[in-house]
Structure formats: C-alpha cells, structure tokens
Design goal:
This protein is an all-alpha fold. It folds into three domains: 67 residues, Multidrug-efflux Transporter Regulator, Chain: A, Domain 2, CATH 1.10.1660.10; 34 residues; 123 residues, no CATH class. It contains 14 helices and two strands. Helix 10 crosses helix 14. The longest helix has 31 residues. This is Transcriptional regulator, MerR family protein. Keywords: DNA-binding. InterPro entries: DNA-bd_dom_put_sf, MerR-type_HTH_dom, MerR_fam. It comes from Lentzea cavernae.
Length: 238
C-alpha cells in the first residue's frame, strides 16, 4: 500500500502545500489513485520530493530543477554555476562587512564611499556643501576630489562664508553685492576656487559626457542654494 499525500509530506520533512505545489509546477508526477480516490505515492515519489527539497535547500530554484529533468541525479553543471554564484555572493558580503566595520568604527556617513568619507572625516560642512560634495564625488576622479577635499579639510567658519551660508532668500540688492565683493577677494574663497577641479580635469576623469557633467553641477547648485545665494555666486564670478 502506498503513502497518502500527508504521509509523503511527513516522510520528506515538508508540507502538504509544498507537495501540491510540486504537482502544480510539473516537478512531481501525479501518482495512481486507490479505489477510494485518494492518491497513493510510492518510493520514486518520495525520492523525487527529497531530491527537490535537497536542491532547493542548496539554492536552486524550482525552475532550475525543472530544467534538469528527471534522470540527472548529479547535476554537476548546475551545481558548479550555483557554486560560482555563491562565491560571488560571499565576496560581496565580505566587502560589505568590511565597509560596515569602517562605517561603525569611524561613525562614517552612509551616503559616501569609505574613501570619500575618509577624505571628509574632519570637515565641518553645511548640509548644502556636503550634498554638493556627495554629487561631485560621482562626477570626478578620486584624485581630483582628493585635492578639493584637502582644502575643505582646512575649511574654517570665517565670517564671510558664514554670511553666505545664512543668507536669506529675501536679502536686498546692497547686501548681495557687498557679500559678493568680499567673497571675490577673500583668501580662503580664492583657495577653494583654485582647488575645485577645472573643467578639463573634471570632464576627462568622468564616465559621463561633458554636457551631462555640466548640467548635473548646475542643477545641483540650483537646488541646494536659495536665490539670493545663487545671485551672490553669479555676482562674485562676473
């Protein structure tokens, strides 16, 4: 006498629902039925369910198992492919763990790579300047960014820069022009401008087109700073 569906599931260490799903997707052939209409499973069915369960435990999908057919008891090629995928996953997870260790140890931000975060570790930036630097890191080479970060590392909250950071959007004409005039000749502002990657360096090192880099920088600046600050930047660079 064969096993019932529930007995087969118990013997295989799985569930009725799983056995029925194997039938639905064509992985397990339907057994003969007894006179009372109930299914009667034999040893081949149990072996098949155990094999499917084992392969899914190893990481193969039901679709992959279906592609193996019924006769291949040792699917070497499929298992080798799975092993390669797992090796790549392990490598990725190890890199992630190493990066997490740095983030936790140094309390680094998560919006920057470990290298960029290290460059800016002791830099006191405004939220706007920080966001701009995050975007810039996606556009320029590590070398160009390193030169810029070196100047930012020595960034001091000098009065003229604090004024710019706190400039309200409704600042009047006279205030904007005065601030632009003072920023234009301020030593630290000049130093930061000199350290900022020039167009040739920026475009040559970027994986993106010159047009895209230029548009991205303009868009970023336009979104991060208010109208008065943008006006000061325009006046300062006239």
């Amino acid at each position: 006498m064969g096993w019932s569906t529930s007995q087969l599931a118990d013997l295989a260490g799985t569930t009725l629902r799983t056995v029925r799903h194997y039938h639905d997707v064509g992985l397990l052939p339907e057994p003969e039925r007894r006179e009372n209409g109930y299914k009667s499973y034999g040893v081949p069915h149990l072996v098949r369910v155990l094999r499917i369960k084992r392969l899914t435990d190893l990481g193969l999908s039901l679709a992959q198992i279906a592609g193996l057919g019924d006769e291949d008891e040792h699917p070497g090629e499929a298992l080798r492919e799975l092993d390669a995928e797992l090796a790549a996953t392990v490598d990725r997870l190890q890199r992630v763990r190493a990066e997490l260790a740095v983030i936790l140890r140094q309390q680094s931000p998560t919006d920057l790579s470990p290298e960029v975060a290290a460059m800016l570790a002791n830099v006191d930036l405004t939220p706007q300047d920080r966001s701009f630097t995050v975007v810039l890191a996606q556009l320029v080479s590590p070398e160009a960014l390193s030169s810029y970060a070196e100047v930012l590392r020595n960034y001091a909250k000098v009065p003229v820069l604090v004024e710019f950071d706190e400039l309200p959007e409704d600042a009047d004409e006279e205030t904007r022009q005065d601030l632009a005039d003072r920023m234009r000749v301020h030593p630290q502002v000049l130093e930061m401008q000199a350290a900022f990657p020039d167009a040739e360096t920026m475009y040559a090192a970027s994986q993106y087109s010159e047009k895209f880099v230029a548009q991205t920088i303009v868009k970023t600046i336009a979104e991060l700073y208010n109208k008065a600050q943008l006006d000061v930047l325009v006046r300062m660079n006239r």
